[in-house]
């Protein structure tokens, strides 16, 4: 149903005024040639802006405006993501480069940032799963290669054993209300946490999945959406991506990603089943939020029954792996 024409006109004028303010700060004397919204993103709206600068040259940038109702829209969170982007620019990790920070929304009307534009789009249905998985793994390993010995990461929060314990405590009531599978997974996670080996924390993306990667002409050219980046256990990123790949493609593709990561990594990841259970429990308990993200990315085939069937199968597989390893296997 169409909105009121006068209201829509006012919104359009306000949007043009917002873009004009952003452009004048970014490129004084410049003008907007055209804009379009880019698909994807639950906590932020991203628009592609083509700008003509005062000297007549044109360039494309992205405006990322955060949804005020989302926790990530707080000025300190927006400034944190911008600082992460400055860090990874210095480390030459493929990602958009930061151009302008508007943490309080004084220009954009909501907390925002302007970034360089990466041409391309996520790839959800690759023709060659093995090659696709290898590029995903290689990109993630570059992120995990950032350690305190390589860069100053003291300003980032650290999430290892204590962070997992807090998460399990927060999810206990929900898990026990949800059903038998959630209770079994939660119990296994609590019972086995003291037997998990915790590595030195590295940089982790904390939302690494195919939807947060950009591909152009068959190559992965960048990783986007660094809102939740922190210091943590690399296994959380690997498990997160495995779950998403199992949901949007299948378990074989998820296993291909893991095989590529293990092959390229300097050492094998032990006890990955634990992190499959940890991140899988998140998905099971918050499937409505995950579905919203999938549908915004155009993955409408991921319906509630499809999602539940796939995540339950993934969790049962991780529980079986735990059983094979005696609950606390090292490999």
What does the secondary structure layout of this molecule look like, with pairings?
Layout: H1 5-26, E1 31-38, E2 44-52, E3 58-66, H2 75-90, E4 98-102, E5 112-116, H3 129-144, E6 158-159, H4 161-178, H5 180-192, E7 202-204, E8 213-216, E9 219-223, E10 230-232, H6 234-248, H7 251-264, H8 272-285, H9 287-296, H10 304-324
Parallel strand pairs: 6-10
Antiparallel strand pairs: 1-2, 2-3, 3-5, 4-5, 7-10, 8-9
Account of the 3D structure:
The structure is a single chain. By secondary structure, the chain is α+β, with helices and mostly antiparallel strands. The chain has two domains: 5-116, Phosphorylase Kinase, domain 1, CATH 3.30.200.20; 129-324, Alpha-Beta Complex (Aminoglycoside 3'-phosphotransferase, Chain: A, domain 2), CATH 3.90.1200. Helix content is 48%, strand content 16%. It is built from ten helices and ten strands. The chain has helices spanning 5-26, 75-90, 129-144, 161-178, 180-192, 234-248, 251-264, 272-285, 287-296, 304-324; strands spanning 31-38, 44-52, 58-66, 98-102, 112-116, 158-159, 202-204, 213-216, 219-223, 230-232. A five-stranded antiparallel sheet has the order 1-2-3-5-4. A three-stranded mixed sheet has the order 6-10-7. It has a two-stranded antiparallel sheet with strand order 8-9. Strand 8 and strand 9 form a beta hairpin. Helix 6 packs across helix 8. The longest helix has 22 residues, at 5-26. It is globular. It starts with a helix and ends in a 7-residue tail after the last helix. The mean pLDDT is 93.
